[in-house]
Amino acid sequence: MLESDPVLEVRGLCVRHAAREGGRPSRAALADVNLQLGAGEMVGLVGESGSGKSTLVRAVARLLPAEAGEVRVLGLNWLRLHGRALREQRRHLQLVFQDPLASLNPRMSVGEALSEPLRAFHPRMGAPERREAVAVMLERVGLSAADASRYPRLFSGGQCQRIAIARAMIAKPRILICDEPVSSLDVSIRGQILNLLLDLQRDAGTSMLFISHDLAVVRHLCRRTYVLLAGRIVDEGPTAELFARPHHPYTLELLAAAPRLGG
Ligand SMILES: Nc1ncnc2c1ncn2[C@@H]1O[C@H](COP(=O)(O)OP(=O)(O)OP(=O)(O)O)[C@@H](O)[C@H]1O
Ligand SMILES: [Mg+2]
After folding, report:
1. Nearest Cα to 130, choosing from 143, 140, 117, 115?
2. Pocket test for ligand 1, best of 21, 54, 212 (most atoms within 8 A of CB)
3. Distance 54 CA to ligand 2 centre (A)
4. Using CB atoms within 10 A as the burial measure, which of 59, 87, 148, 198 is most buried?
């Protein structure tokens, strides 16, 4: 792999959801999706509800099966990996979801949740070193070392998202995919969480795929952006250019619907 090679490259990805019970066979949820993420790059993915953004995340992370295509993570095609090989590669690509409380195990203390990736990906790390790493990471995301012994339900939504971000970043992944990471949070704290993500991304040089409904946020954070419509990428480019001169009428429509940017 060369320095300039993308850290994540999706080629011709097709996904079809199983037909819901009693329903007609479903049309493709993703059709021939191509997408690249460079080293240290922050890339946006936008599209209306139901366009397939979360399906893309889940297929890339091997949480649901793909029908065709390739998902290359640091050059390795994840769609060909299974079992232990896949588990080992997971340290390179981590996820942050929309609903932080749902993404944390209620029976696991914060310290246990953050230790888990360290146990999995750095099996030789000793317990004291792990405790130290957890304490440092908690403070890095604006919580305290003492929070390690507490359980998720004691925290606010914003704090839970900080915990989820800490858990995703603690093993230093090369790639972080954030699927609407602030949509479920209070408007008043969204900025803090976005700044935290940006800070961590810059410090660690992590590549980030950032999914959001909020085009103003995407324009602020992402150098490049992809537009997804009904399972297809219909537009892409440097964010500023794309939003100033969209190629596809759908991008124009999205922009017109965005209160702070559009027509
Ligand atoms: N498990 C499933 N079984 C069947 N169809 C599904 C399943 N999950 C999603 N879909 C369908 O796939 C399409 C894409 O859904 P997806 O959740 O990926 O959209 P999204 O862009 O993430 O939307 P949102 O912005 O609301 O999060 C939708 O038509 C949805 O109804
Ligand atoms: Mg979604």
Report:
1. 115
2. 54
3. 4
4. 59
Pick from 35, 33, 31, 30: which is nearest to 9 by CA? 35
Question: Which residues, including other chains, have CB under 8 Å from residue 192's CB and lie 6 or more apart?
Answer: 142, 158
pLDDT bin (cut points 50, 70, 90) of residue 260 is: low
Averaged pLDDT, 82-88: 94
Domain 8-257 has CATH 2.120.10.30: no
Separation of alpha carbons 21 and 92, rounded Å: 36
For tokens 């992809």, name the residue. 226
Domain ranges of the chain: 8-257
Tell me the C-alpha to C-alpha distance, in Å, between residue 37 and each of 120, 148, 210, 253, 261: 25, 33, 11, 25, 25
Q: Which residues surround the ion ligand 2 when the cut-off is CB under 5 Å? A: 53-54
Cβ < 6 Å from ligand 1: which residues?
Answer: 17, 20, 26, 29, 47, 49-55
- pTM for the full predicted model: 0.94
pLDDT for position 101:
87
Q: Can you tell me the distance from the alpha carbon of 205 to that of 198, in angstroms, rounded to the nearest whole number?
A: 10
Per DSSP, what are the bridge partners of residue 176? 94, 208
- Tell me the per-residue pLDDT of 35-75, one tens digit each, with 9 for 90 and over: 999 999 999 999 999 999 999 999 999 999 999 999 999 99
Contact call for residues 62 and 162 (beta carbons, < 8 A):
no
